[in-house]
Specification:
With 118 residues, this protein is mainly beta. It has strands spanning 31-35, 40-44, 49-57, 66-69, 72-75, 85-92, 95-100, 112-117. The structure holds copper (II) ion.
Length: 118
């Protein structure tokens, strides 16, 4: 029987790129990541646990997002079109994490950044 409780709203989005999420309540995203052709930046604060990353592509070419979590690399299931957004929900412990664009050559061009989980 499918659970319909409000507490389940957040589940099931891991590893999927959401083209345009519906207007979310305040605080729905913990960290916002902005991708451009030669840079990437993160803003916002997250506490350890389930962390939602809202990713914006402000570049002129498609980009995507990969993030190193322990000895694993997690990434969006699809690219984000220019001007588009994606969302990735991860279970993260406190610490610093490196993220980048996994498209060929993009990380080398500077599309890389770090985010912190408290
Ligand atoms: Cu890219």
């Amino acid at each position: 029987m499918p659970a319909a409780g409000a507490g389940d709203y957040d589940h099931g989005y891991a590893d999927t790129a959401t083209p345009s999420a519906p207007t979310a309540p305040t605080g729905a995203h913990d960290i916002e990541i902005t991708l451009q052709e030669r840079s990437a930046s993160a803003s916002g604060m997250a506490h350890a646990g389930q962390v939602k990353l809202a990713i914006k592509n402000q570049g002129r070419f498609p980009h995507s997002l990969a993030i190193s979590v322990g000895d694993q690399t997690r990434q969006l299931g699809s690219n984000i079109a220019p001007g588009g957004t994606g969302e990735l929900t991860l279970e993260l412990a406190a610490g610093e994490y490196t993220f980048w664009c996994p498209l060929p050559g993009h990380r080398q061009q500077g599309i890389e950044g770090r985010l912190r989980v408290m």
